[in-house]
């Protein structure tokens, strides 16, 4: 199945009925991700800021309401930039910054592509033609399992560059420059059997993370990562992956790309004033403010801290690979 720049939810639910629900899952709350924007409230109560994004709200007659930023009305684009600081980065800048990461990892430049100056400081790139080689002491699997994170990801242009988020130009697979795109290129060059390819791709997805505040952008990011998987599999094997493979990739994505207030580490707007009972019968409930908000301390919020999975650890209770951890515990661990 071919997906264009704007991935249609109707196409997903028609082709892969269970996948859309997985892409809307929030594992922290055990609900769906929510809108976290007022842009859709004119459609009714179910589209208000704090309402969950349900499959039936974005399919059928409403199948075209979520679209990439480049397709949104210019006034709406400006409003989102003003209200939520939503500014999307041209692909050539994403490429330049991702190149810096790889320059450090490989110890050399121009590993995946060579940047080319055009005009007025704007650049493009030319992909390298030769198979990627690795420095002494490092193998291709080390690169695939190297953990990468895009913060406040929007539509995740740093992870997968299916299109330029500022121009809307579609980017062919061989020219893509995202963090995940690069991992998949390495896999395509080194793995030629379907089962092993799937294992390697799952490893790449398990080590690629991102978070975003707004629910519509988060869904677009998740969809782009899913379709990137489909496109690369079809490029490699000239057929679509099985539904069970898609379902597992969607499950990984739903854990690794999550909805969060990046400044607080909690579900957006989940912390605030709380009423607590007091023992004195003649006094009313005590109002307790959020200590994290009051002291600007990310470890002290009373909201719902976001959960992610550490895929490298086996959960002792379920026996399954992947242990639930709070995202802020990674920050706390790093600071010790």
> Rg to the nearest angstrom?
21 Å
What spatial form do the alpha-carbon principal axes imply? Answer: globular
Largest sheet: 3 strands, parallel
Order of SSEs: HHEEHHEEHEHHEHHEEEHEEH
Mean pLDDT: 90
Which stretches of 5+ consecutive residues score pLDDT under 50?
Answer: none
User: How many distinct helices?
Assistant: 11
Describe the strand arrangement of the main beta sheet, using strand numbers.
Answer: 5-6-7
The helicity comes to 25-40%
The fraction of residues in strands falls at: 5-15%
Q: Helix- and strand-based class?
A: alpha/beta
DSSP strand count: 11
Instruction: Determine the N-to-C terminus distance.
Output: 48 Å
Note down, in words, how this protein is organized.
36% of the residues lie in helices and 14% in strands. With 336 residues, it is α/β, with parallel strands linked by helices. The strands form five sheets. A three-stranded parallel beta sheet has the order 5-6-7. A two-stranded antiparallel ribbon has the order 1-2. Strand 1 (25-26) and strand 2 form a beta hairpin. It is globular, with a radius of gyration of 21 Å.
